[in-house]
Each structure stands twice: as structure tokens, then as C-alpha cells.
């Protein structure tokens, strides 16, 4: 068990932020999280956060996954005092962090996310993993399923994926999986590209448009200048930034500001 005292970290906010769809709430501020073939229980009490893993696993996987070495206080302090909207958004979602997720998992999840809500995306991802993912066991012999590989999904037809209830997205997933499995789109190469090149390469994938590519760049590749614009963010921009969001002010961490705004917009829709 690793215990840390963390600033700018709220596991409830992170789990419901729409970045990752493999958090499972198991208690008050307690979650099981599946990432790759790893299962982590994470608990929070105030600023104290407990990660149920050893030090080697924590440093190799979870410290970078939760971006724990980044100073989010610096990002928050940079918000213009006169920007009341963004000040409110930061105050509301001040425990958010930009996760560093697996690239293929993020591609799958955000193809599924199109014209969808968080609850339904989570269910679709869980169904996909249960039916096509690898069966895994942790040290406590808990059973769970990993995200299915591109190679596994490349053998599937949209009809095979029907039980997952993906709708029109099933054909996109099958096609994107074939592109990745064949090497037509090289994920290892994309991991080493700059933001502009990575985004352009991701747009070659079937089912990946500009918004989805931006989400993948932000939540998997950690290009934190990425600024995905979905319906919520478009409405926010129209209402509060009719001349455009001040991206230059937040150069180097615009995606962090996007996440604060997105999470705040979700709360306003509840």
C-alpha cells in the first residue's frame, strides 16, 4: 500500500470527468481502476490518497498515469482574475488531473464516445472488455478483463460486436483495429510524434475525427495543448468566449483548462 498526501487531486472528480471509462466505484471515495492488465484500488480521505500496490508498480505505472509530478496549482494560478467563468470552473473541478492512458485503449473509448454519454460509454466499454478482452487476475485473485487488443478486434465483424450495442460505431472499431493490427497506422510511431503530427496521423483512423483525435492527443499522448471541442465546450465558447478561448494565455496547458471547463459544464447540465 502506498499512501500519499496530494494537492489538487480528487478521485471522485477524476473518475467522473469523462477521460477514462474503467473506474468502478466500490465505496465512498474508493474505486477500482483497470488500466491495461493492471487493477488498482484507490481510496481518498481528505488529501490522503492510498494506492493498493507496491512501490515499484506505483512509480512505474500510477505516478505517471495520474500525472502526480505535475504542478496543477501553477495551472490554476495562471487563470485570469477577470475571467469569472474559468475561475468558477477551476474552483469546482480543482481536483482534476489529465490522465496518461494507453493509446489503443483511448482510441477505442473515444470512438465509442461519439454522440454518447458517459454512463453509456462506460457500459459499452465494459461489455467490449467482457466479451473480447483478456481475462486477468491480480494478487488477490480478483478476475477482470483488459481492453481487447487491436489484433483481437481486427478479426471481428460489426455483427460480432452486436452484443456490445455499439450501433454504427462497431464498423469504425473493426476498421480502425485492422488499420492498427496491420501496421497501416503505427501506434508506436505516433507515441513519439509531436502534437501536430500525432493528430494528423490519428485522423487516418476510421471513425476518428478532429474532436476524437484531440481527445486522444490529450488523454493518451499528454499533448496538453490539445483542446477538444465537443457540444459542451462549443456551447461554453459561444456563451463565454465569443471571440475565442484565450489559448495563447494558457499555452502549454490549454488542455488542462479545457478539462476544468468540460467538467464544470457537465455539472451545469445535471
UniProtKB/TrEMBL annotation:
It is an enzyme of class 4 (lyase). CDD domains: ENDO3c. It catalyses: 2'-deoxyribonucleotide-(2'-deoxyribose 5'-phosphate)-2'-deoxyribonucleotide-DNA = a 3'-end 2'-deoxyribonucleotide-(2,3-dehydro-2,3-deoxyribose 5'-phosphate)-DNA + a 5'-end 5'-phospho-2'-deoxyribonucleoside-DNA + H(+). Belongs to the type-1 OGG1 family. It comes from Butyricicoccus faecihominis. The keyword DNA damage applies. The keyword DNA damage applies. This is DNA-(apurinic or apyrimidinic site) lyase.
Amino acid at each position: 500500500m502506498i499512501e500519499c498526501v496530494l494537492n489538487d487531486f480528487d478521485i471522485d472528480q477524476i473518475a467522473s470527468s469523462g477521460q477514462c471509462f474503467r473506474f468502478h466505484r466500490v465505496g465512498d471515495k474508493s474505486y477500482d481502476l483497470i488500466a491495461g492488465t493492471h487493477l488498482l484500488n484507490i481510496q481518498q480521505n481528505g488529501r490522503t490518497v492510498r494506492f493498493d500496490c507496491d512501490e515499484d508498480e506505483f512509480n512505474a505505472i500510477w505516478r505517471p498515469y495520474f500525472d502526480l509530478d505535475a504542478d496543477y496549482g501553477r495551472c490554476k494560478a495562471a487563470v485570469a482574475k477577470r475571467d469569472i467563468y474559468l475561475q468558477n470552473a477551476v474552483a469546482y473541478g480543482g481536483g482534476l488531473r489529465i490522465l496518461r492512458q494507453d493509446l489503443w485503449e483511448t482510441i477505442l473509448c473515444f470512438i465509442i464516445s461519439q454522440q454518447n454519454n458517459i454512463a453509456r460509454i462506460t457500459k459499452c466499454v465494459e461489455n467490449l472488455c467482457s466479451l473480447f478482452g483478456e481475462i486477468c487476475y491480480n494478487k488477490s485473485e480478483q478476475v477482470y478483463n483488459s481492453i481487447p487488443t487491436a489484433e483481437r478486434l481486427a478479426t471481428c465483424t460489426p455483427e460480432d460486436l452486436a452484443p456490445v450495442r455499439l450501433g454504427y460505431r462497431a464498423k469504425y472499431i473493426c476498421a480502425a483495429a485492422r488499420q492498427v493490427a496491420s501496421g497501416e497506422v503505427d501506434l508506436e510511431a505516433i507515441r513519439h510524434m509531436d502534437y501536430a503530427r500525432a493528430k494528423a496521423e490519428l485522423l487516418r483512423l476510421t471513425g476518428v475525427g478532429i474532436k476524437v483525435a484531440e481527445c486522444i492527443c490529450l488523454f493518451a499522448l499528454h499533448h496538453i495543448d490539445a483542446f477538444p471541442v465537443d457540444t459542451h465546450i462549443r456551447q461554453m465558447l459561444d456563451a463565454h468566449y465569443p471571440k475565442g478561448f484565450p489559448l495563447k494565455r494558457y499555452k502549454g496547458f490549454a488542455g488542462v483548462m479545457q478539462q476544468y471547463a468540460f467538467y464544470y459544464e457537465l455539472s451545469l447540465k445535471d
